[in-house]
TrEMBL record:
InterPro entries: NqrB/RnfD, RnfD_bac. The keyword Phosphoprotein applies. This is Ion-translocating oxidoreductase complex subunit D. It comes from the Bacteria. Its EC number is 7.-.-.-. It holds the Pfam family NQR2_RnfD_RnfE. It is found in: Cell membrane. PANTHER family: ELECTRON TRANSPORT COMPLEX PROTEIN RNFD, ION-TRANSLOCATING OXIDOREDUCTASE COMPLEX SUBUNIT D. One of its GO terms (cellular component) is plasma membrane. It comes from Candidatus Avimonoglobus intestinipullorum.
Length: 321
């Protein structure tokens, strides 16, 4: 006897397609991507274009070889490619970008059945794979606006944690994006513009990203290891605006496939991401933590959905006869 598993209500029909939703995400990512090119130069554009082209190519080749319908036109592979490229330093060798794209599309997405079947975010999983495989290349970040003479520099998170020496950016620099980091993660202003666009287009809900950021900020303010001598609120704001927190909260923790569908589940998911990111940054040896936190919560999504499904109206408990 066949069993059909249906996700929790509500089930709404909207005049939207996968391609239109993905197009909105691409539009929302454009300000931060352009800021990355502005701060890190033409090499940043090459990295992102290589990632996008590789993801599209691997999706097409896999589906062609497996004799499956070609889905490159739904733009999901392009979104994965752009997100992966924005999560990489502009100095990374291009062959590593190609291998990371293959991992995202073939291993994480297609082998589990394609779009809607993957249980973790492909771009984040590929980034973590690349971080483990090529830690040196993945943690070498150039100074912004350095041009062809770019030299590696410590990220604000590494300085805040005390694992590297360097100069911390001002809050204004952090807000605009003038600091070392991955291509698409440095400009708080541009990421916020993309977030507002997605909210206005009703592509995403505010629940996960706002809960994520607020929980992380509260924990950092009260329990962060602030040995910099700066005020607690300045220390907290630098933590929020540095690293991949905003990029992850706005664009990857809100992925439809790998996050809870229930309102309560979304609050739990966001809080879990915030707690895990704080724990990794505060107690771990790695100054970041966003990618691993979201992936860990992705794995918990089915369990969260299971226990946060709202009770049906009029439902009563069954009594033993």
């Amino acid at each position: 006897m066949n069993r059909f598993v249906v996700s929790s209500s509500p089930h709404m029909h909207k005049d939207e397609s996968i391609a239109s939703i993905m197009l909105d995400v691409l539009i929302a990512l454009m300000p931060a991507a352009l800021a990355g090119i502005y701060y890190f130069g033409w090499r940043a554009a090459v990295v992102m274009l290589t990632s996008i082209a590789s993801c599209l190519l691997f999706e097409y080749l896999y589906e062609k070889l497996m004799k499956k319908p070609i889905t490159t036109r739904d733009l999901s592979a392009m979104v994965t490619g752009l997100l992966l490229g924005m999560n990489l330093p502009s100095t990374i060798p291009l062959w590593m970008v190609v291998v990371g794209s293959a991992f995202a599309i073939i291993i994480v997405k297609q082998l589990y059945g394609g779009l809607g079947k993957n249980f973790v975010n492909p771009a984040l999983a590929a980034r973590c794979f690349m971080l483990i495989a090529w830690a040196g290349a993945m943690t070498t970040f150039p100074e912004p606006m350095a041009g062809v003479d770019a030299v590696s520099s410590a990220t604000p998170l590494a300085v805040l944690k005390g694992v590297s020496e360097g100069t911390l950016p001002t809050l204004r620099q952090a807000f605009l994006g003038a600091m070392p980091g991955s291509i698409g993660e440095t400009s708080c202003l541009m990421l916020l513009l993309g977030f507002v666009y997605l909210l206005l287009r009703r592509v995403i809900s505010w629940k996960i990203p706002v809960t994520y950021i607020v929980v992380f900020a509260v924990l950092t303010f009260f329990f962060g290891k602030n040995e910099t001598g700066m005020e607690a609120w300045t220390y907290t704001l630098l933590h929020v605006m540095s690293g991949g927190l905003l990029l992850g909260a706005f664009f990857m923790a809100t992925d439809y496939t790998t996050t809870p569908t229930t309102p309560m589940g979304q609050f739990i998911f966001g809080a879990g991401c915030g707690i895990l990111t704080f724990v990794i940054r505060r107690f771990g040896g790695y100054p970041e933590g966003v990618s691993f936190s979201i992936l860990l919560m992705n794995v918990c999504t089915p369990l969260i959905d299971r226990y946060t499904v709202p009770r049906k109206f009029g439902e009563v408990a069954k009594h033993a006869s």
